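Progress narrative, work stream C.
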Amino acid sequence: MAQASPFRPKRVDGAGSPEAQPAQELLILPTGVFQVAEKMEKRTCALCPKDVEYNVLYFAQSENIAAHENCLLYSSGLVESEDHDPLNPDRSFDVESVKKEIQRGRKLKCKFCHKRGATVGCDLKNCNKNYHFFCAKKDDAVPQSDGVRGIYKLLCQQHAQFPNSAQSAKFSGVKRKRGRKKHLSGNHIQSPETMKCNTFVSQVKEEHGRHTDATVKVPFLKKCKEAGLLNYLLEEILDKVHSIPEKLMDETTSESDYEEIGSALFDCRLFEDIFENFQAAIEKKIHASQQRRQQLKEEIELLQDLKQTLCSFQENRDLMSSSTSVSSLSY
């Protein structure tokens, strides 16, 4: 970590004399040390073509961290520590922020390769798809960038095919906030599959007052199956469930988010079997802890008994030594 040298005032002539002593006492000697955040250093791969997007790397020697420039620019929870200077091609990413983004990525799985470290998220609101940057390109996601304003965003294939959503992503002036997934302003554009699914949901809500849950929900699921949307519906549910750990681990999660997650988990009959199994796991852990406590109790009793035996042995030894000394004196 780079450090600024403490300021030292010049010596005043005659500082050792009594007349100069009051002037010397007026000098304030600052003791603080200013620390400058360590920045990632730009490197270019010598074996890659010059004009490809993957040949530019940023490296932190102190932490042994290297990252592609685009992986940094498009990561949802990372921003440059300083405004980008168009005349300076180097980017400004401080090492601590990059380390935090790496830590955040360990909780996120890539939609394409299903491995962790996926810090690049689709920018459309309510879309939970996360990628590694190059996995996103393989999955036909579309990067959107405005280098002048320093905005770098990405739309997944599903949402990039709609002109209104792509246009909204391109011209949105909302800057990203560190540690939070960015969303676009404007209307949420839905795919045809989502619109069909929402139509069925609306029908369910309208008929809810006239029919029982079984007579409404069973036809709804059958219609989803007939329309080829059942897998899509289940994928959306799984994406929602996969986003729960990220929200719970985020220090900025609000109380209302906790309430929403709690309601989704505890009020849903889908998780009844899970909670029964979880209760059994709790009972098993309690039993194991009780057994461990009993073992510790027996071990403590054994050690205490050993301690008493050792004390008795020591007392007998001292007594025998004393008797031997008395006998020798009598002779």
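Work stream C, second folded protein:
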Amino acid sequence: PPPVPAAALRDREAADRSSPGREAEAGGGAVPGRPRTKFSAAQLQELERSFREQRYIGASEKRRLAAVLNLSQSQIKTWFQNRRMKFKRQTQDAR
């Protein structure tokens, strides 16, 4: 086969990246599964209070918060993971 010009290869690669069907992989659309949790102001207040005391949550505190806030332990764990990343971004931006 004849050689393919570099510009044609770049165009083809760009088309492959933006092709339909890859949106979930690339973060372009909602991933099927649990819908996004909307935390109430009271839930956020308690989660933030707990985060200020300790950035990493233990199993017993996770169970307690889940029961008190009527959330699953997975939701508590995910909230703490996301909050640590937000904290990390904020502290890096402050430099």
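The chain has five helices and no strands. No further action is required on this item.
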